[in-house]
Design goal:
Number of domains: 3
CATH topology of the largest domain: Cyclophilin
Domain PPIase cyclophilin-type: 133-281
GO molecular function, one term: peptidyl-prolyl cis-trans isomerase activity
Biased composition (Polar residues): 381-394
Organism: Brassicogethes aeneus
Largest sheet: 9 strands, mixed
Number of helices: 11
Strand content: 15-25%
Shape: elongated
CATH superfamily of the largest domain: Cyclophilin-like
Oligomer: single chain
Region (Disordered): 358-394
CATH architecture of the largest domain: Beta Barrel
């Protein structure tokens, strides 16, 4: 038998890396996956690497420094490799495939990106980790929100203390506190000085300070005054790894961190007023209590007289309204968050963040009488520059 017949064919491999809500990334992901399914004898299963913005920024900078060349001209948030050789972004992939294939695409790439973000966040919360947001304003102008993942499975007590302060209102909460120190190229320090010194054990040092965006607790020495002020790293700082407890990581909002980082300082104090406007836990689904677990058929009218008065409906309250409320079709005056899951990210998330960032009466008092105004350049936490539909002929 001929040796060539015994030799298995060499399969080619695509690798797609990118910001998961980018329409070019979603298109490239679909194309290389479709090629593998259509021509499995020629293409092996592609490697797909979805990323949030911080992870993408770190990755592409490392690749540019390592390989150089055409990577420095990459402007879109997606990189495509063929047999480990860089071929470009989504447009270059289309050009590359035009010579051999003809495919019509009529997909909503933004919807696919939304679904992938939703899946990524759900995978985080399924590991019993929580998500928190910090909304920041510079000189009374809101610049956006940062989204963090907390490592509840590794440092549960530290995460619990942090979430309590995110959700507390007034002097015991982070809302209204300053970002009071910026150490260029190292870290930013948050929450101001107006805290009573409280001690708790430095839980452990399992989480390393090995990248940008690490969330950690400040202290005045081991186990001392380590429950209030926190920091966000701007670069890897391994010297911190056994001095300060790290408990979280920035997922989305690196462009917010860059704006804070670039504020001018004097003696490491920012010359502009930088403030945490809102802080809290970001939930994909509401927590369920006992009433959510009981069948609606066994509910009695008397149990919900107060709830019925709070439902947003034009007609008089009724059990029919209540049944709709239980299905997530209504909300109540007393509800803090919607009972519907965040299925339509990033659009729904953008509205959610806008509600968070809109100043309300009764918010913490400020020295300045100038009202907070959203920045015109503000972008939602998860964004995509794609059009809703794309028709591409290959």
């Amino acid at each position: 038998m001929d040796d060539d017949e015994d030799t298995p064919p060499v399969l080619h491999k695509f690798t797609v890396v990118g910001h998961m809500v980018n329409h070019g990334y979603q298109m490239s992901k679909y194309l290389v996956t479709k090629l593998h399914k259509s021509v499995p004898n020629y293409y092996q299963a592609p490697e797909i690497r979805p990323m949030f913005d911080l992870q993408w920024d770190e990755y592409i900078l490392k690749m540019k420094r390592r390989h150089g060349g055409q990577l420095w001209s990459l402007t879109n948030n997606v990189a495509v490799f063929f047999d480990d050789q860089f071929i470009g972004d989504d447009e270059d992939l289309l050009t590359y495939l035009t010579t051999a294939y003809k495919i019509n695409l009529t997909f909503n790439w933004q919807t696919l990106g939304i679904q992938e973000v939703n899946n990524q966040l759900m995978s985080i919360t399924s590991r019993y980790r929580q998500l928190v947001y910090l909304t920041v304003a510079i000189d009374r102008k809101i610049i956006g929100s940062m989204l963090f993942e907390l490592y509840n499975d590794l440092v549960p007590n530290t995460c619990e203390n942090f979430i309590k302060k995110c959700e507390n209102i007034g002097e015991k909460g982070y809302a209204g506190k300053k970002i009071h120190r910026i150490v260029k190229g190292s870290w930013i320090q948050c929450a101001g000085w107006c805290w009573d010194a409280q001690d708790q054990r430095c839980e452990n040092y399992k989480v390393p300070h090995d990248r940008r965006g690490v969330l950690g607790m400040c202290n005045a020495g081991r186990h001392r005054d380590n429950t209030a002020q926190f920091f966000i790293s701007l670069d890897p700082a391994q010297w911190m790894s056994y001095r300060y407890v790290a408990f979280g990581q920035l997922l989305q909002g690196n462009y917010i961190l860059k704006q804070i980082e670039n504020v001018a300082t004097k003696n490491e104090q920012p010359l502009l007023n930088i403030e945490i406007i809102r802080a809290g836990e970001f939930k994909m689904y509401p927590s369920k209590d006992e009433t959510d677990l009981i069948s609606p058929q066994v509910f009695r009218t008397l149990d919900f007289q107060e709830d019925l008065q709070n439902i947003f409906v034009s007609e008089p309250p009724s059990l029919f309204d209540l049944s709709k409320y239980q299905q997530g079709m209504y909300c109540m005056h007393t509800d803090l968050k919607s009972h519907m899951p965040f299925v339509y990210l990033p659009d729904l998330l953008m509205k959610y963040m806008e509600e968070i960032e809109e100043p309300q009466e009764g918010d913490h008092e400020q020295d300045s009488s100038t009202p907070l105004t959203p920045c015109s350049e503000y972008q939602p936490v998860f964004q995509s520059s794609s059009s809703n539909n794309s028709l591409v002929t290959l």
